[in-house]
Specification:
Blueprint (H helix, E strand, L loop, with lengths): L1 E5 L6 H10 L3 E6 L12 E5 L5 H8 L4 E4 L20 H15 L4 E5 L13 H9 L2 H16 L4 E7 L1 E3 L7 E4 L9 E3 H12 L10 E4 L1
Parallel strand pairs: 1-2, 1-4, 2-3, 4-5, 5-6, 6-10, 7-9
Antiparallel strand pairs: 8-10
Helix pairs in contact: 1-6, 2-3, 3-5, 4-5
Length: 218
């Protein structure tokens, strides 16, 4: 399958690149700095540009059959009050363009990485984490994920929205706990490499169409 990947140079996105190529998929990656990705294969095509630019987004989307997005609101550091590097509506603005362009190119399958704590799952988080979302710059990402999710859910696309628990950088695959309506209760974390595998596997998993799983690691 030929997949448009957005967020390929991010901390999770780089693992999505590896997993998708490992599964034999072809990738079109729209990135601001192509030097951050070493290609070395004709199955990986890099497009320089920003997903905020509809023309650059459309160029990278041509001939693709599916989309994976691991875009996020980024900050200057992991400190909760660190300043934003992206606009606070970055995700929802890009998603609006993505939806329209996907229709034009007859792409119906899309898998989006959101976050545990977005929308109704915020009530399932520990009290301290809820406080941080409400009172620090972490909250910008969660609020825009909510806008992004609503936009996608109100389409005829074959969408899957994945909400990972807190992300870690541990580099060993974990058994995935898949939760719906807080059942079973998610664990607090999951590593990025396991999230990447789940996202790539989800592309071809029809059972996940129109599902919003929370995933955590055992």
């Amino acid at each position: 399958m030929k997949i448009l990947l957005l967020g390929a140079t991010g901390r999770t996105g780089k693992y999505v690149v590896d997993e998708a190529l490992k599964k034999g998929h072809d990738l079109n990656c729209l990135v601001r700095d192509p030097k951050k990705i070493k290609s070395g294969t004709d199955k990986l095509k890099l497009f320089k540009g920003s997903p905020e630019n509809p023309y650059e987004l459309e160029s990278a989307m041509k001939n693709c059959e599916a989309i994976i997005s691991v875009l996020n609101i980024s900050r200057n550091s992991d400190f909760p009050w660190s300043k934003l590097r992206t606009p606070p509506t970055f995700l929802s603005v890009v998603t609006k363009s993505l939806i329209e362009l996907a229709k034009n190119h007859n792409i119906i399958r899309i898998v989006v990485c959101s976050a545990w704590g977005a929308s109704e799952t915020k009530n399932d988080l520990p009290k301290l984490f809820r406080w941080l979302i409400n009172n620090s710059n972490i909250g910008y990402a969660y609020r825009d994920h909510e806008r992004q999710e609503k936009l996608i859910m109100n389409t005829n696309l074959s969408w899957t929205i994945v909400r990972p628990a807190g992300l870690t950088n541990f580099k060993k695959y974990q058994e995935i706990i898949e939760s719906y309506n807080n059942n079973p209760k998610p664990r607090m974390t999951i590593n990025r490499i396991s999230v990447a595998k789940y996202l790539v596997d989800a592309i071809t998993n029809e059972k996940l169409i129109h599902k919003v799983p929370v995933i955590s690691g055992r």
